[in-house]
Specification:
Its main location: nucleus. By secondary structure, the protein is α/β, with parallel strands linked by helices. It is built from 40 helices and 16 strands. A five-stranded mixed beta sheet has the order 9-10-5-11-12. The termini are close together. The structure holds 2'-deoxycytidine-5'-triphosphate (DCP) and magnesium ion (MG) (2 copies). 2'-deoxycytidine-5'-triphosphate binds next to helix 14, strand 5, helix 16 and strand 7. It binds a DNA duplex through helix 13, helix 14, helix 26, helix 29 and strand 13.
Amino acid sequence: MRRAKREEKFPENGFEQWGGYMNAKKAKLEKQFKAGASKESHLQTTSKIFSGVSVYVNGYTIPTADEIKMVMMVHGGQFHQYYSASKTRFIIASNLADAKLKKIKGQPKVVKPQWIADCVAAEKLLDFRPYLLYSNQSKTQPKIQFPQVSEFESPVNSPRYKKLEISIGQTLTSTPKVGRKRAALDATDKSPFNDSTASAISAEEEKVMLESDDSKSSSSSDFNLFSEFKLNKKKTSPFEVVTNFPEDEEKEPSVSNEESDFEDLLDCTLVAQELRAAEESALKKTEPPLKEAVTLPKKETPTPQEDNVFISPPKVEVKIPQSTAPKPEETAPPPKEPEPHSKKAPMKRAGEENFLSEFYSNSRLHHISTMGTAFKAYVNDLRRNHSGDFPGRQKLLQWKREAGIDGHGWSGGVVVMHIDMDCFFVSVGLRAHPELRGQPVAVTHAKGNPPPTANSSSREAEFQMYRKRMQNKAGTSKSTEHFAEALEKRLSWRGDGGEASSMSEIASCNYEARAAGLRNGMFLGEALRLCPDLKTIAYDFDAYKEVSTALYDTLASLTLDIEAVSCDEMFVDCTRLLAETDTKPLDFATFVRAEIKKITGCPASTGFGANMLQARMATKKAKPDGQFHLLPEDVVEFVKNTKVSDLPGVGRNVAYRLQALGVQTCNDLQKTSLALLQEHFGAKVGLSLHKHSRGEDDRKLELEHVRKSVSAEVNYGVRFSSLAECRRFVEELSAEVQRRLEAAEKQGRCVTLKLMVKAKDAPERTAKFMGHGVCDSLSRSVTLPAETSDAKIIAREAMKLVDQLGINFSLFRGMGVQMSKLSDKKKADAGMTRFLQKSKPPSPVASTSRAEPKASTSRAEPVASTSRAEPKASTSRAEPVASTSRAEPEALDEAVLAELPEDIRQEVLREYKLARPPSASSSKSFAAELTMSQVDPSFLEALPDDLKREVVADLQASKTRRGDSKLLLPALTSPRKSKVSPKKKKRGRPIGGAKLKPIIKVPRRESSPPAKPEVVPEVKVEEEKDEGPLQVSMKVEDLLPLIKEWVKSSAEPVEQDTELMLQFLEKLLLSGKVDKIAAVLRTLKLNVMRKGSAAWIGIFEGLVERTQHLVFNHYGSKLMF
DNA sequence: ATCCTCCCCTAC
DNA sequence: TAAGGTAGGGGAGGAT
Ligand SMILES: Nc1ccn([C@H]2C[C@H](O)[C@@H](COP(=O)(O)OP(=O)(O)OP(=O)(O)O)O2)c(=O)n1
Ligand SMILES: [Mg+2]
Ligand SMILES: [Mg+2]
């Protein structure tokens, strides 16, 4: 069966104990290799130990998830990639770490991984109870044998088990597809920062602000020197400031990655907190009271109802640094901005005035991200408008002459250069702090002496708790130790609650600091413990921007075969440049780096290679302040000593999983078969690892970048005290998205809402001040019928999604709004608006893309939106309408509508719908097709009969689609976009009702609620004896309903029906319709489980077994479904 | 086979 | 206190 593909299957192996597990694993893997791509044998299982057992692995476990997956495969169990309340029977976890665990519905058993290991060792299914992670008895060693193999029926402690489903493998098709290709045109020209969100201030404005706001440069003690840079215009490269700083930077032993983890490790700590909180306040189910809620009322402004409610002129942005301020050393906490009346300045929270702009102005991640985006656009613009002249080349040639560098350039093949500024933020910052050169320095917000937060003791307690948990992890294997160690380092602050416990992150640290073990992204507290002498300096985003621009302009003056990576880094295809200037790579490097240092005062390192990977690795080797050319002949050797974690795409997770496979270096990786890699990591990732480990890289520089999505999200400071606040924040984020879309001259059709929700037992107080803490994250999206960039529409859709999720806003810890399925914004669709709004000519505005030749696009007040409909003072309460193709509801002219082509009409209807305030109960959004539950009844009623009929017909025709799939683990939510039959409409979600108490059985299906036997009766009898309705040639869509009805219609299956079904399946098999078999079995399984009938389950199991037998005989392998 | 949604991961 | 953003690759699994 072609299905074999690469799913979960492993040749038999004989690995026994987990004791010497690591070793055994290696041997086993090798064996599998040998077995070679014997795909066929893949499907075999060696035992039935885990028959009927389905597991989902959460977090890191000692047999790793991959290993458990393998074991389940081999021993007859089921491994679920996602947790499903209805299908997953056990959750394997070592601790509470992943918040997800805590909100899972269906109360699956959470069992320690050791259980799996012990079962394998014992070669039989052991009672899982001793291994329950939470049970009191769990203590430790277990091994209580359990009589027979699958007696789990015993209602250990939950009758729920009864209806527990036997899960069968799933996995049917699933081709590693990537799909989604969005046609998109190019953006337009403009300077790099025109769209940089908050900082979208014009250069002039910026300057003014800088000048007037001295607090700004702030932190830097010497404002003067600093300002010299700041006041320079950014646009071009006016960086003549020439600051020659003494060379510094001595070579440091290269350190590995930066501190990537964050919450993961943090999680453990938080988990400890959670535990404690949970223990203390046993069942304090109710909504956690918002402690600060008080201040809210007064704060609220009259809420401008205007059109531009949510636009937040970015002006704020630039100035901010001031509030933060002073450097660490010389503490001088500037006065917090005084608060009108209330005592101390209340923390600013999302949804409150100025929060967003203030947050953004201080967010380093926001800055590097938007700068990165801006530079990609900048390169696009430069390429588009380029004259063909590269002035920098004259300089290069002159330099060569003066330096006495002879001709004979490079004659090799493709040369890719990667260039990256050394400890960027620090290097820039040090220009203003020459006295700190040579010392360990880091850039961070915190300056030190945090208020006497008296929680050092509580932290100590947390730490102890954490330790306990770790030990509890039993395993104690290598990796566990590794993580434990890492964690301890980060969290083992004791005593004083001074800065040694600061949770402020270090954006960048110099090489002197790295020598002490510091890494970018590390907490200041931990950093100080590692390096007590660390000096910290403040951020200076404007300066970074200037240096970045200088970096780009420098390279752009030499060639435009550039792929921007970030504000301090890019790839350059030097092939043509070197050939045309007859220059050798390293000579070029010397020149460019010197130029950059001369202009910016900051060091950059460059690497050269035959492809992007090699160039990147070369840069790493070159740092700091160096250059390196990885020659083709040296690649093989070079790569062997490279750690896998140094490969692009190999982060914490992949590195960990590779390590579990015994792979740590590229050399190890080379010895691993492609098949195995793909088995574990998927087709693409596996192949990528395979190639990268050999220094091979197919990627081509992306010279014309096409943006695919635009988003704005904040996962900090989110603590809503009212739905209104939440809504307002969504509106602000939407306005931000609109602004960015406009800056990029794009529109989109898909709106995605992202949420971070406090995990079930996570403490109200997060480890990091105002941080998101331990959360579950989820997203929901809607595809609109027409593209838009209108913040109002975006916000409305996003809010609908919020409602739809039905989670109490007070649990939100982060929100994001994203627009995707982008297309260039043309005035084109103004056509529709015009059509419907008889009076309004399509604003011919901006016109085709490409438009503005750089120059700052207007920072634009909210307005901007091109074809904006006139907000007529319509009678209807429609909001002040805004942009794009949208007509006033009142403008709908039935006659006109009737003449429109079908597709257009649908869009109009859609728009019409959008323009209306959603009725209270309707929280649904449209998808490609309308769904009954998404229709606002009042809207429907208002339609003329014919239209009504059409809409309804449409709904019914499409109602089958889009069933909810998955039902992700954070069951924390509600029934997802459950369909709900036409008749009943979605219950309006209780706006603030958190459904902490999920129902036992989650209705995970579209149509009828599972537990509803009522409906069903005897529908039809499709299962006649004789040939009956089941035909091999039937389409799956016709077949499945029959299956469903079969199960639904009778309490107990009739034997003849079962036989008939088996015969039918056999026929399908003989006809090669394996997919249909899989589909039938899946549907059957679903419905049987839903029914929860033991009789049906038994029948089903028997059917599956017999079918599998047939399939095996026919194909030599089992069917995966 | 391919598309789509909802993740997860990675990178800066 | 602290400022935990944002874009893209890609995998799982369901629908078509
Ligand atoms: N976790 C991180 C990683 C990076 N950055 C910012 C600060 C860095 O200076 C800048 C560039 O990132 P790099 O990865 O290039 O790191 P550095 O330039 O600091 O050091 P290196 O010399 O390793 O390039 O991005 C950050 O704020 N947080
Ligand atoms: Mg760098
Ligand atoms: Mg970089």
